[in-house]
Amino acid sequence: xxxxLDDNSNPYRNMIMDAIRINQDHxxxxxxxxxxxxxxxxxxxxLLKDYNESLWDGCTNHSKLSAVAQMFTIKSDLGLSExxxxxxxxxxxxxxxxxxRLKENFYVAKSMMKPLGLGY
Length: 120
Hints:
This protein has helices spanning 11-22, 39-52, 64-78, 82-95, 106-113. It is an all-alpha fold. α1 packs antiparallel against α2.
């Protein structure tokens, strides 16, 4: 999957960028500082990485983030339990190529999505 971080038409990129804007402490431009990012910035950088990393090597239609976001949508739309979600993911991981990057269960996926501040 190629990098499209500047592609404003991608809904997953926009979701991350919206969360960053909502959670900013201030909107003034700050000078560039050479220091490690704080924990919140690190979480957003991790999400951007997940958005830009393919679900498996050679996959061109899903990223780690898009797969989890779509699974969350399915879980919510169908009213699935966490156990149901985990069973579906377990099955999906068994049919995806070896080395796939689909998060292994609901708890791990929820931890990945937490910085977006999305409620149920």
